[in-house]
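Quick log. Single chain, no ligands specified.
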Amino acid sequence: MYSDEDLVGEKCLTGLRRQFPNEMNMLKYSYRFCLSGCVGLIRSWLQKDPEDSETPEEMADMSFRLIMSVIRETHPRIRR
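-> predicted structure:
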């Protein structure tokens, strides 16, 4: 059985490997930091009233932007 982090992590790693294929060793700690934050973000979102909540697409976009901002700020060699 997959954990929350495993499910989110698969999608994140796929995107990171596509964008930064030669930098994965360097990104492992930033990735784990972002993954924990994303799982917390999703858990918080799921506890909200659906009427007052962002769409899944909005949450995916927000998660991606947060992850990329952390990576760009902590790994200057891969800033874009």
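The mean pLDDT is 79.
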